[in-house]
Amino acid sequence: MNPLDFDALKETFDADGFVVIRGYLSSDEVSEMRSRLSTYRTHVDGWQGEFEGGGAVKGLDKHDEWYRDYLLGGRHIPLMKHLIEDDLVPDNVTWIDKPEGVKRTLPHYDALGSYLSPPSGISLWIALDAIDLRNGCLHYERGSHRRDKAKAYPLPDYDEGNPSAVAVEVEPGDAVIHSALTVHWSGVREEHRSRTAMVFVYWGASSKYEAAFAKRSRSGYARDRVTV
Question: How does pLDDT run across 84-119, given as a tens digit for each residue?
Fold first, then answer.
């Protein structure tokens, strides 16, 4: 991967609420992440029920030191801090797929129901498979991080065909970084090919901690916050 232009990426991030980085991981790095996921599935009990219930497993960092180290010290952290102009509070590592029978993710934004105020946050989403329009790729609404939105999932009466909506098709190793305020969703699947991705979630360190929300949070760091 060529060196990243932090300032150019920030310009796009500020305008759109997300940036796409092609070839963020090398083929060897993608293989390593897939291997770590296989190890997790072999050695951690209880993941299957959560996965079958919604096509995602949160908190891999609680059970696997490799994921925790990546969350706390991955090379993406300086860029993400630059994008939101803040230090980061790690929240969790999530593994996402959408196997047949699991409903797609509807339009929403990540800060909904957060335990920090104002809701400042950012996520790194890394594709481990080819994900396109036929197998339910991510969609984003450009500029949605700057407008007021309903506090509901899914967003009520949301028009997925609005002029600011964009589909993001990816290859293994491509990455997307998005604001916790950016509206996004997964598309309708016509093919049930694997669409595995890893997500590394953070809140802005300057956001205010709210104990009432923290009680409902599944984050391992909701009460004992770590800043990176």
Answer: 999 999 989 999 988 788 889 999 999 876 667 777
Euclidean distance between CA atoms 193 and 191, whole angstroms: 6
Backbone phi and psi for residue 146, each to the nearest 5 degrees, phi listed first: -100, -5
The reported pLDDT for the residue numbered 224 is 61
Asked if pLDDT for residue 219 goes beyond 60, the answer is no
Question: What's the 3-state SS for the chain?
Answer: CCCCCHHHHHHHHHHHCEEEECCCCCHHHHHHHHHHHHHHHHHCCCHHHHHHHHCEEECHHHHCHHHHHHHHHCCCHHHHHHHHCCCEEEEEEEEECCCCCCCCCCCECCCCCCCEECCCEEEEEEECCCECCCECCEEEECCHHHCCCCCCCCCCCCCCCCCCEEEECECCCCEEEEECCCCEEECCECCCCCCCEEEEEEEECCCEECHHHHCCCCCCCCCCCCCC
Tell me if the pTM is above 0.85: yes
Give the CA radius of gyration of the chain: 17
pLDDT tens figures, 167-199: 999 999 999 999 999 999 999 989 989 999 999
Q: Which residues, 6 or more positions from 101, have their beta carbon under 8 angstroms from its beta carbon? A: none
Res. 1: pLDDT tops 70: no
**CA 203 to the chain's CA centroid:** 12
